[in-house]
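To whoever is on call:

I kicked off a structure prediction for a single chain this morning and the downstream step that reads the tokens threw a length-mismatch warning. I double-checked the sequence; it's 196 residues and nothing unusual in it as far as I can see. Pasting both halves so you can look.
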Amino acid sequence: GDEAKERLYSLSKMQDGTYSIVFKVHSEGICSKQMGKLDVNNTIDARLATNPAFYMPQDSQTCTLISNGTGIGPFMGILEATNERCPVHFYWGCRSQEEESLFEADFERAKSRPGMAHFEVSHSQEGMKQRIQERVKRDRIKLAHNLAEGGTIMICGALQMQHDIEIILQDALEEEKLGTLQEFREQGRFLTDCYN
């Protein structure tokens, strides 16, 4: 049955050697409900599976991280390790200030790190009610040039968000005559790990 089906969650390896996981408890979710009930020092049975197709290349000149919701998970370790060698442009979309506040301490540390070139969070249900796609669209020309100049773009989150971002970036690359998104995907510079 459904209970035996493997669930995949994105982890982030932190500087202290621990792993970070971001998940949402779903009312019908078998694993998420179980994980949501865990206390400190509780254990669960799990296995680690690497995703070699979703690592930032060592020679990347810049790294743009785009995510929404729990897609922020694999980026927590990158945020923690940000340095001047590879400036980070961070875009995350969530529903509300309350969701953002879950990461307040992590975000304050990330913003103060040398190499944090751009840090932006948008709320889809409050304030300006903008999805992260709208912020990326505003900065699309700069992001297209970052990609063309040896940078990497990584996307994690909802498949619909990924699809929207791909259209925005493809249009910007064409507009600036910088190549195609497919070329950058083949070079390992445009990486996605998205889900329904």
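Update from on-call: the warning came from a stale cache, not from the record. Cleared it. Sanity check on the structure: Strands lie at 11-13, 19-21, 63-68, 88-94, 116-123, 152-158, 190-195.
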